[in-house]
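Minimal example, chain plus nicotinamide-adenine-dinucleotide.
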Amino acid sequence: MIDVALFGAGRIGNIHAANVAREQGVRLKYVVDVNQDAAQKLAARHGAQPAGVAKVFDDRDVGAVLICSSTDTHADLIMSAAAAGKQIFCEKPIDLAIDRARGCAEAVRRAGVTCMIGFQRRFDPTFAALKSRLDAGAIGAPEMLIVTSRDPGAPPIPYIKSSGGIFKDMLIHDFDIFRWILDDDAVSVHASASCLVDPAIAEAGDVDSTAVTIRTKRGRLCQINTSRRAAYGYDQRFEVLGTGGMLQAGNHTPTEVVASTTKSVSRDLPLHFFLERYRAAYANEIAHFFAVLAGKEPLRTTIADGLKALELAEAATTSWREGRVVQLEAA
Ligand SMILES: NC(=O)c1ccc[n+]([C@@H]2O[C@H](COP(=O)([O-])OP(=O)(O)OC[C@H]3O[C@@H](n4cnc5c(N)ncnc54)[C@H](O)[C@@H]3O)[C@@H](O)[C@H]2O)c1
């Protein structure tokens, strides 16, 4: 039996707590949130106790922590958890500052603990099936990747202001998809971006629509297009062109019903947003975390992956701000 503490009883914390509660041999012992009401409610739902930070790190029985609190808390909590010898699952991004994120990676390495970063898209059944076929040689060697990643609507302006910008907040997932699918390092990044959805986003210093082009060490190309607005719902697709064909991963819909009439052929809109679209992925990533701790699986989304995605987000931000191609040192 492994005792677990969860930080952050917000949107993603609620999802992860429910998935932890389903795991055999795992007990959610503490929920920590500066919003005591939120901590109390989530703890009560799963038979856990609301607690403060010190109680978690002083409790020798707590084997693992899940960091699901606001982004600006991640780095300090990773450092404290590593120092206390706890195994770590942390939501993306590690931090908004690359130096602090590197410091976290060093602390994790020194402590010798596991630190999984929440890139749940790798655990989505459709995306994972595409990756398996790609690895099995279904389309030969991959040459180009096109990623479409559009939200149904923009988050509130206070969120935008503290998010670190669209590249670190939103595209960080797409940069991880790029690295995972092409299994290659970026040598150059060019990001073009506009504010087309809401002028208040521009006033907050950010953009809401982006077009990013990445070139890899082996000359492969990736295009990522993102928007904070898609009138038809959450749009999450990608396609890989290889020497022998193409693989495409599409959206998920609530049902597979297709209605054909004299006027049109229609089907359901995509599942509304990330909580619905990635429900299975979130469950799979938490199951993976505990399988790793039990020694049954090698870790698939490491703190090094979190750092690489953050480096790409930083490069894309620079490219957009300075209007130039940013060259990266290929690892
Ligand atoms: N992987 C994904 O798909 C995904 C999706 C959403 C959010 N996230 C990430 O998860 C994190 C949380 O996002 P959210 O959407 O759940 O936000 P949220 O605002 O719904 O929840 C964050 C919670 O953290 C709490 N909190 C703030 N400071 C704290 C502290 N010092 N200690 C403990 N709790 C604290 C807040 O009170 C709040 O309840 C962010 O880093 C975000 O980037 C990842």
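The radius of gyration is 20 Å. Residues 71 and 93 are 7 Å apart (CA to CA).
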